[in-house]
């Protein structure tokens, strides 16, 4: 029986903890006549074990989970040499295959970075436990008592790219919120991830929590990832973390519900009524301060009334910081003779998340045109307006349909820690379940508990 | 360009409100060499118009939306004759094709029911508007002010079966929460739905709201439904309301995010420590009081220690109410000689939502076995325990992973109105976004608004 054939939970695969007396054990679990491929069997078995482990985690005491997290932090530090050595293999393979310097930087681990990862685990342990929080509740006129309580989602699948710190991050955020995690990291970080997951599982077992609560399916490669994405009923949610292509693949292939995170085609709009000095600082900060992350700006839109005054200044500063500029005709006119190198912007530029030192720049006739451009090209992550006009700010906030809308500040602030959410699972760019920076609460669901003394519906 | 090729929003189809100055109008919108079928073109055009209408609704004043809802209620009453006549065509077709009496009852409209539907619309108008609610907010140490604000989802697709009141219900719940609705009703109610949607659209236009905010795609049949389910980027969420097969089809076919609602394989477990009189009343109420709805019980599990005392009494009463009983061997033994007609329960019975006067009944050895049975077979809707043992109640609540867990009351209480949520969009049986009875807030997303005065990330 395929797990994807069942809505809700699968009937044959979800009873590993013991068949009930009323039902013949093993019924419905007969092997099908065509055997599934080995990778499918293996990945579904990993998911099944994670599901079983998730039941223990769901009712684990907060103190037990936190002890497990501290055990993981200690074990990572103790295994620093092993992890760094494994990471060196990944880096070496990356260099041999021509990996870019910025990707190598994201991939690289040294003792300092391992220690920082362990510290981040301890920070997560110190956060309030979201499980058990009573979200709302009431007593109904008939005496029924209702409470809506946070509960773990169950099994969280994470699909991500070449940053081995995400392996730890994803695992501990899932554990803290009472979930099991099935991890699929990028092949570029495979040696690092194998070592890290092994250390994490050992620490879990040593602290009395089920080792199967954290598992990697990296060894089954892309085929394994496909089976993870189809494990509806075993895996409760998939969280892809990475670039646009990764997210699109997961969204289009998954039958498991997906929370889209991460890719940001982020806009800064400089209004006619902007404080141009402030706008310049915001635009440069949004693009240059850390260009490799999803909340960095990718397109700058400037109102035509301030184009001549603003564009030569801001583009000179951006070019000086090494930013390649893709500009429309009116931008090129506005900076003509200023000695700033530009190339013509195409639709590709408006659509692209560069994740690097490149920027698309355009002139718009009005706030309406800025909003229309953003609606057309944005990924719905973060957009900023620079303006001192209250009505322009209000309209931008109301009409731009993105997870985060910023007035007179850098787009770089879109971040779980900066928002005070404690730890960040990712930045959701979708509208269901979670939108914007996701904290631990976004890795939970809720359950209604209804308590009565014989109330009947009449 | 297919709308399903874009993650987030489509680039070519989302700018119907005017191309921005910086981008050549129509770019990316060139017709493909192979023309899509007519139904696809038509359904996507309906969705596109709904998307445009949703922008007006998203920023409409609460008073304007409520005036629109009152206009709809008045128009429905004024069009009673037309609606009842259209409904009579549906009933006639249903009778000719052998539709069951209970389905005919769900389908039938008369003047009294139309008036009740209109009253329900006025009730929705009277509810608090969820849009604009500030869910949380703070001022960060650097002076950035954050607020997380409820915003509409955008376009809500509803796929449902033969109950024409759902057409109105779905439309007005979407409108009240600032969303446009694209409706796909069952073919059995097609004449009713066509008449109702026409009346609703007329009322919207007359009250100054966009008529395209409510649209039906019924005329394109099943093919139209498929295109609705693939309209990712134009439709923000699909809410199927109906039986298991409908929901499975939508879940498996959609690239649009889905909120599963409705089907309930609901369990009542009578513990060894139950008050048996109360348990009897609860079991009978849960099964018999309204067997055609999703919160009615479908399986009764009884602890072996009370099987002999409880089962003959409860099954006699259930049989007397006309309930067909599918029982396991130990139940048959417990009622042997009591003159109660039973048939053997199979796995099919444990898995089935009868939505009628049938019940599966089993004996379990322990609370553990009851929980294991429920984990295996439940749809995750509602499960109840009857017990006076605090530890049994606590364990059942903690270990049963369903949207609603009830202690010592009927499962029939799982309902948005009974929970005090005002109006019910459906009962979500999934874990993401909404779980259990969904109110208006569950048809919204949130947006973070960040306001500063030049804050940069350093």
Please give a structural write-up.
2 copies of one chain form a homodimer. The first copy, chain A, has helices spanning 38-58, 62-78, 80-96, 101-107, 111-126, 164-176, 190-206, 221-229, 244-253, 276-288, 304-320, 329-334, 347-351, 367-377, 390-399; strands at 134-139, 145-152, 155-160, 180-184, 214-216, 237-241, 266-270, 297-303, 324-327, 343-344, 358-364, 382-386, 404-409, 426-428, 436-438, 444-455. Chain A is α/β, with parallel strands linked by helices. Chain A has 2 domains: 47-261 and 435-451, Aldehyde Dehydrogenase, Chain A, domain 1 (3-Layer(aba) Sandwich), CATH 3.40.605; 266-419, 3-Layer(aba) Sandwich (Aldehyde Dehydrogenase, Chain A, domain 2), CATH 3.40.309. In chain A, the strands form 4 sheets. In chain A, strands 10-9-11-8-7-12-13 form a 7-stranded parallel β-sheet, sandwiched between helices. Chain A is globular, with a radius of gyration of 25 Å. The two termini of chain A are 41 Å apart. Mean pLDDT of chain A is 90; it is low at 1-32. Chains A and B meet through β2, α9, α10, α13 and β11 of A and β2, α9, α10, α13 and β11 of B. β13 of chain A pairs parallel with β16 (444-455) of chain B, so a sheet runs across the interface.
């Amino acid at each position: 029986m395929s797990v994807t054939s069942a809505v809700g939970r699968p009937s044959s695969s979800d009873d590993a903890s013991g068949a009930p007396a009323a039902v013949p054990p093993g019924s419905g679990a007969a092997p099908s006549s065509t055997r599934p491929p080995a990778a499918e069997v293996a990945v579904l078995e990993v998911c099944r074990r994670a599901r079983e482990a998730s039941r223990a985690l769901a009712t684990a005491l907060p103190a037990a989970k936190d002890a497990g997290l501290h055990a993981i932090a200690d074990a990572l530090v103790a295994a620093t040499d092993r992890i760094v050595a494994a990471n060196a293999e990944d880096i070496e393979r990356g260099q041999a295959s021509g990996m870019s310097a910025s990707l190598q930087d994201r991939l690289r681990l040294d003792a300092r970075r391992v220690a920082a990862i362990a510290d981040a685990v301890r920070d997560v342990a110190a956060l309030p436990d979201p499980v058990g929080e009573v979200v709302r509740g009431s007593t109904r006129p008939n005496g029924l008592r209702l409470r809506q309580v946070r509960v773990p989602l169950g099994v969280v699948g994470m699909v991500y790219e070449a940053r081995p710190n995400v392996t730890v991050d994803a695992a501990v955020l899932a554990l803290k919120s009472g979930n099991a995690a099935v991890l699929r990291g990028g092949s570029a970080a495979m040696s690092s991830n194998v070592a890290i997951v092994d250390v994490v599982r050992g620490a879990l077992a040593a602290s009395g929590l089920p080792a199967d609560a954290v598992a990697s399916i990296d060894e089954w490669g892309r085929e394994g990832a496909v089976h993870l994405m189809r494990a509806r009923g075993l895996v409760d949610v998939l969280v892809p973390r990475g670039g646009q292509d990764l997210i699109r693949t997961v969204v289009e292939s998954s039958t498991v519900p997906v929370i889209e995170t991460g890719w940001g085609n982020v806009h800064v709009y400089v209004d006619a009524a902007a404080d141009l000095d402030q706008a310049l600082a915001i635009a440069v900060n949004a693009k240059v301060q850390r260009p490799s992350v999803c909340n960095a700006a990718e397109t700058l839109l400037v109102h035509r009334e301030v184009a001549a005054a603003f564009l030569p200044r801001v583009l000179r500063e951006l070019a000086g910081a090494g930013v390649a500029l893709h500009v429309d005709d009116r931008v090129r006119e506005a900076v003509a003779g200023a000695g700033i190198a530009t190339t013509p912007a195409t639709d590709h530029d408006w659509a692209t998340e560069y994740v690097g030192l490149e920027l698309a720049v355009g002139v718009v006739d009005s706030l309406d045109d800025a909003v229309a451009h953003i609606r057309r090209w944005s990924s719905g992550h973060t957009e900023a307006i620079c303006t001192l006009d209250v009505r322009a700010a209000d309209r931008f906030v109301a009409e731009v349909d993105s997870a985060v809308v910023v007035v007179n500040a850098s787009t770089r602030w879109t971040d779980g820690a900066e928002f005070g959410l404690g730890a960040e699972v990712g930045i959701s760019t979708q509208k269901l379940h979670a939108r914007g920076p996701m904290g631990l609460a976004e890795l939970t669901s809720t359950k209604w508990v209804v308590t009565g003394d014989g109330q009947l519906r009449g």
